[in-house]
Amino acid sequence: MKFIKTPLSGAYIIETEKREDDRGFFARTWDRSEFKTHGVKTDFVQSSMSYTKQRGTLRGMHYQKSPNDEGKLMYITKGRIYDVIIDLRKNSATYKKWFSTELSDDSCKGLYIPEGFAHGFITLTSDVEVRYMMTAFYKQESRAGVRYDDPAFGIRWPIEITKISEKDAHFPNYDSR
């Protein structure tokens, strides 16, 4: 596994090292000792998945409020997304900065998102499956989000948003919370 630092403190792109033969490939996607070596929290307590039918669907920008902040490790098992994270940790040198990367099933790259980050993505293909491991249990009372088009961040989405949930479309701007 290769840990590639992103411009946001504590967030990593995880490159798997495929072992391929005529049957296909095998790749390790998580290893506690590798993650600990890079100072990444490893006590995952929950695993989830999402499926999105339509290209151009935006999901986000979600996070959980303290004390239920969650870190995430995610991989795409089908399709392709433009993934965006925002550092919302007020004491961070990269506070209010965002980073994006394209993730797909054929790249086998993952993304580690630290606690205190908002996360969202837009689907670049139809029929997208995303797998997540989280460091905190989902708590309805802690769920929160910020607007995908909040001027405080200036996120540039690569394609037109054709579908978004009412909840995601109506999150408040970050500075007005």
From TrEMBL:
Q: Tell me where the transmembrane regions lie.
A: none
Report which superkingdom the organism of origin falls in. Answer: Bacteria
What molecular function does GO assign, one term?
dTDP-4-dehydrorhamnose 3,5-epimerase activity
GO annotations of cellular component type: cytosol
Q: Which reaction does it catalyse?
A: dTDP-4-dehydro-6-deoxy-alpha-D-glucose = dTDP-4-dehydro-beta-L-rhamnose
Q: Which residues form the active site?
A: 62 (proton acceptor), 132 (proton donor)
Listed A to Z, the keywords are: Isomerase
According to the UniProt entry, what is the EC number of this protein?
Answer: 5.1.3.13
Q: Name one GO biological process term.
A: polysaccharide biosynthetic process
Gene3D superfamilies linked to this entry: Jelly Rolls
Question: What metabolic or biological pathway is this protein involved in?
Answer: Carbohydrate biosynthesis; dTDP-L-rhamnose biosynthesis
Which InterPro entries has this protein been placed in? RmlC-like (IPR000888), RmlC-like_jellyroll (IPR014710), RmlC_Cupin_sf (IPR011051)
Q: Name one Pfam family in it.
A: dTDP_sugar_isom
Q: Where is this site: Participates in a stacking interaction with the thymidine ring of dTDP-4-oxo-6-deoxyglucose?
A: 138
CDD domains with a match to the protein in the record: cupin_RmlC
Tell me the protein family, please.
Belongs to the dTDP-4-dehydrorhamnose 3,5-epimerase family.
Q: Quaternary arrangement and interactors, per the entry? A: Homodimer.
Functional note: Catalyzes the epimerization of the C3' and C5'positions of dTDP-6-deoxy-D-xylo-4-hexulose, forming dTDP-6-deoxy-L-lyxo-4-hexulose.
- This chain's protein is named dTDP-4-dehydrorhamnose 3,5-epimerase
Q: Which organism is it from?
A: Candidatus Curtissbacteria bacterium GW2011_GWA1_41_11
Q: Lineage from the top down?
A: Bacteria, Candidatus Curtissiibacteriota
